[in-house]
Amino acid sequence: MLLSYKESASSVSAHAHRGPWVSPPCPRPYQRESRGRAISKEERPGSCHVTPALLSTGMEPEEGTPLWRLQKLPAELGPKLLHKIIDGICGRTYPVYQDYQSVWESAEWMHVLEDITKFFKAVVGKNLSDEEVFQQLSQLNSFHQEAIMKCLKSRKDEIKQALLEEIVDISSAQLQDFDWQLKVRIYLFMNVYVFYFIFGIERSIYFFNVYI
């Protein structure tokens, strides 16, 4: 049998006078139909159900902020990892997962490498100031912030040189591709004249429009 509104109010008021540490009792569970479905625990008025979100009080770095996964790494391992990643950027060996499998899972490790690599390249490529860099590191502890800044200051020139070499390689590849296409077009263009003398101008123009 359902409690009336007055009975519920008087019950809560009576328990409230027992002292500040006594919480009012939860109303008896009940079921009522709402458009053909039963009311869940969370929807009941005065329910004592506590959601997991209310119990979460940990202060973790926000996902999506630069290098937030680095927060899992012990502070003493930070400089070694950062320098090894810069080695990889400069064409040497990247750090291996086996050395950090106790910190990250394999899938997460790939994101760590990618995030830190992109961060160093962006900071050096855009020539960001120390203040701008610190703004991106605000979610990390002071140990990791200091390690990152030291790595940037000591190896900035190496990273810049690596970026320049990447640009040169890309430009060379594009030039080679352009040179190859140009040679093909010249070859086909020269053959148009041969077609002109053999098959006439109409077929030569058709060949030129289709293949060049």
From TrEMBL:
InterPro entries: COMMD4/6/7/8, COMMD8_HN. It comes from the Eukaryota. Residues 70-159 form the COMMD8 helical N-terminal domain. Keywords: Membrane, Transmembrane, Transmembrane helix. Residues 16-44 are annotated as: Disordered. Residues 30-44 have a biased composition (Basic and acidic residues). The chain crosses the membrane at residues 186-208. This is COMM domain containing 8. It comes from Equus asinus asinus. The lineage of its organism: Eukaryota, Metazoa, Chordata, Craniata, Vertebrata.
